[in-house]
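Figure 2 data, in text form.
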Amino acid sequence: MAMTNNRKRCFTCSRENNTYTCEGCSKRFCSIHIPEHQQILNEELHHIINGYNQFKQRIDEQKQYSYNYSLIEQIDQWERNSIEIIQEKAQELNGNKNSITAADGNLAGQELNQFDCPTGIFIDKNKNIFIVDCANHRVVEWKYNAKEGQIIAGGNGKANRMNQLNYPQEVIVDDFGRIYVADNGNSRIMRWCEGKEEGEIVVGGNNEGYRSNQLYSPHDLSFDDEGNLYVVDSLRARILKFEIM
């Protein structure tokens, strides 16, 4: 703080003694009060410097935190990628070692050892496999270790007669050996009893609609422990429960 000497009134005491002009604030102070003014200015400057240092420290800490956070995120991503690669390799090894073709494996077709767009599967307690052969409009049963299947539902072209299916989607077998099929294209659930050439409608078959006895493109079905049938009515965006046992 540069000072100049002049005989004018002091800003603090208003006395007309020798005064000095503070070039920082352009005010005049006598010889008694100029040291006090200098002390005040020094304290203010010190406060500003401390504030600057604290602010700079916070900025540096934020930069370090941002860097550390970014580094931790990068390490976590590397770890996740490594785990995924290891799991993929493990699945490949297990698949090459243990997997076998349980049914078909031939080109798409209509023979009893072929499928065309299978969409559903059910395995009973005897390891027999029931397969929904969607594009062939039939359900085929493959006995355990058999070389070909046998048609147990549909297989008579795409239509809505009792011995036909229309792009079936799912199959399930109850404890009595009765076969339930989600007959998607006909918007109905069909049931076939063992040895029967024709099935029966247990749900739907009343055109597409919103009533409780109507379906629209059923895709899946399941039984609960009490024998109630649940149907995924896909194009009506709902799950329906039926007591049919």
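Caption note: Residues 9-68 form one domain.
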